[in-house]
Fold this sequence. Notes:
Strands 1-3-8-9-10 form a 5-stranded mixed beta sheet, with no helix packed on it. Strands 2-5-4-6-7 form a 5-stranded mixed beta sheet, with helices on one face. It contains 3 helices and 10 strands. The chain has one domain: CATH 3.30.1330.200. Helices cover 22% and strands 37% of the residues.
Amino acid sequence: MNYIYVGIGDYVVSRDSEVVIRTMALGSCVAIIIRDLKTNLVTLGHIALPDSSINARRALEKPASFADTGIHAMLTDLRLAGYSGNGSLEVKLAGGASILDPNNTFNIGKRNLLAIRRCLWQHKLGAIAEHVGGNISRNVSVEVATGKTIIASPGKGSWIL
């Protein structure tokens, strides 16, 4: 297997059946996994913040830094890679925790999830599976060949989403 690692504010699109896409250390950030069941295209994005209006330059340079520009970029690149818009997308979400904000002062994880869901709904999409919230860090791996999504958390083990 070949591994492609996705950093904060990045995303990857692949249809290579030998690839596993991974992102690490999701705290308040959210991993969005979108898979086209007909073409086996998979994209995974590591979204850091809810709204690009706070930094338009960053949104242009790294659109997946934000929910609104990230989801748009991911769907655009899926279409460029061969997704025909035939309604065969499945979406999974992981992350959105409250790790460094015990008093929920900023609620970045919760705000990220709300913004992501709102953006997905605008595209007539919704998640079929989620492992979100709480106060744990998560790592996410997606096998492009099968769409199998594995969540792991240090000291907590791993499980299939």
